[in-house]
Amino acid sequence: MARIIPIWAYIILAALLAIGIQQWRVSHYKARVESLQSVANTLHEANVANQATIKALQAANDKWARESAANLANAKIYTDAAMAFAKKQQAEADAAKAKLRAIYERQPDAKAWADARVPDSVVRVLTSAGQD
Fold it and tell me: From what superkingdom does this record's organism come (predicted)?
């Protein structure tokens, strides 16, 4: 009978040791779960903030796109007007050059006069005239 008590004592000791190890594992995993839950909460909050930022940026981008489309229509109007003005100026310049060529062909003296160098004294008088 004395031999039975130590066997039960060993069994109880082994059971207590196993329970202690399991308790340690459970507390370790609980701490791990809490840590991971904290990380998950942080990531969730960051995700919510990122989604809010994305929505704000999308709204700003949509607003910019609408304004850009309106500006593009206005820009086309102004560009067309500028192109028409430039074509008109080019046509006037071409007409003036053609007129000069015709004059120079009819009157070679006019071409020689136009190609002549302006005397320095005339340049001085003309440039100082507006400085009084």
Answer: Bacteria
Inter-axis angle of helices 4-106 and 108-115, nearest 10: 130
- Distance separating alpha carbons of residues 83 and 32, to the nearest angstrom: 72
Mention every residue, 6+ apart, whose C-beta is less than 8 A from residue 7: none
Rounded distance, CA 105 to CA 98, Å?
A: 10
pLDDT in tens, 22-64: 999 999 999 999 999 999 999 999 999 999 999 999 999 999 9
Domain that holds residue 23: 4-113
For residues 110 and 104, is the Cβ–Cβ distance under 8 A? yes
Say if 70 falls within a structural domain. Answer: yes
Joined together, the tokens standing for residue 69 give 């489309």
